[in-house]
TrEMBL record:
It comes from the Bacteria. The lineage of its organism: Bacteria, Bacillati, Actinomycetota, Actinomycetes, Kitasatosporales. Pfam families: MR_MLE_C, MR_MLE_N. The keyword Oxidoreductase does not apply. Its EC number is 4.2.1.8. SUPFAM superfamilies: Enolase C-terminal domain-like, Enolase N-terminal domain-like. It comes from Streptomyces longisporoflavus. Keywords: Lyase. One of its GO terms (molecular function) is mannonate dehydratase activity. This is D-mannonate dehydratase ManD.
Amino acid sequence: MKIVDVKVVVTSPGRNFVTLKLTTDDGLTGLGDATLNGRELAVVSYLTDHVAPLLTGRDPHRIEDTWQYLYRGAYWRRGPVTMAAIAAVDVALWDIKAKAAGLPLYQLLGGASRERVRTYGHANGRDIPELLDSVRARLAEGYQAVRIQSGIPGLKAVYGVHSTDESGAAVLHQQARPLVEDWDTDAYLRHTPTVFEAVRAEFGAELPLLHDAHHRLSPIQAARLGKDLEPYRPFWLEDCTPAENQEALRLVRRNTTTPLAIGEVFNTVHDYQALITEQLIDYVRSAVTHFGGVTPLRKLFDFAAQYQIKSAVHGPEDISPIGMAAALHLDLAVHNFGIQEYSGHTPLTDEVFRHAYTFTDGHLHPGEAPGIGVELDEDLAAAHPYEAAYLPVNRLQDGTVHDW
Ligand SMILES: O=NC(=O)[C@@H](O)[C@H](O)[C@H](O)CO
Ligand SMILES: [Co+2]
């Protein structure tokens, strides 16, 4: 079997997605997600100008060899653009291999280790009453775990809290120019324990509550927050501090038993080395799309399993249904599965990317369709062209740029 066509499809059914479509001489097709929020066109060029010419004529069954060829053969290693491009190729090849075998991908990854995939949803509010309503809405949708994000008194916009414009319409955090958001860590550290207090008082002690500090704290501030949240027993505190400096987590780990989740911005195992071997975290967060594909993410989960660390694949709306589907096949198969983030997509996105996966009672299942179980409606995709979009930039009260 040979790859005879390589196509990159950019579409924006409410937000930008980049999709790679490979076609073989047998007429089989494979899809891969290459979406890098805010820097999408860099990956389009990496795939179109540098990778596509190398794929034509290759045997699609040689997944490991193709991955090594693209990773080592580029000379310049790692990084979000490179690894998103390689991920798209990897997932498309697994899609083809599974279709050729007539099996859903999870059957090629060792088969099901569980009946279904536990998820968590996003609850948010500009203030605590609005957050409580949002938790209620997620529970009504069937979620059995929620990430809670709240506005902070005195701050205009906060990560994870959908702000609305004068008309009340939600303001997406992708904008044609970066939105500038304001930040005050002390206000956040004072306010967040009161948020957990209110949610626990309203929903009880059992509901798994997750929270994302989104890279904004110093190690000692992260230790303080982890400690202050212990009475509320969070399921996890996510991205508590920028973790390029992995050793920084030693100070946090020494000071709190609050479980820690890190890694949605990591793209190779080297970003995690000390975090895993020193058991500084409890969950690894990378998504298939940003970590180079199914092939390396499976290796990461197996490495993490040796240190009692579980998977928790990143699943926001800017991971396309293709990336979500690929994650679910891994989630179903690996032994050390933890939880899957699932924000869902717009109805239009679900029409562009028709998928076999289903959401029921707060759990997902990848479905039994051969391959990863996603089909791309190219005509509908073409009707929604790319729109330049940036993630926000965060600034402290004195104007200093901070982590968003
Ligand atoms: O845990 N989820 C997150 O932190 C996400 O909402 C990220 O901010 C976006 O996916 C960045 O594109
Ligand atoms: Co996050």
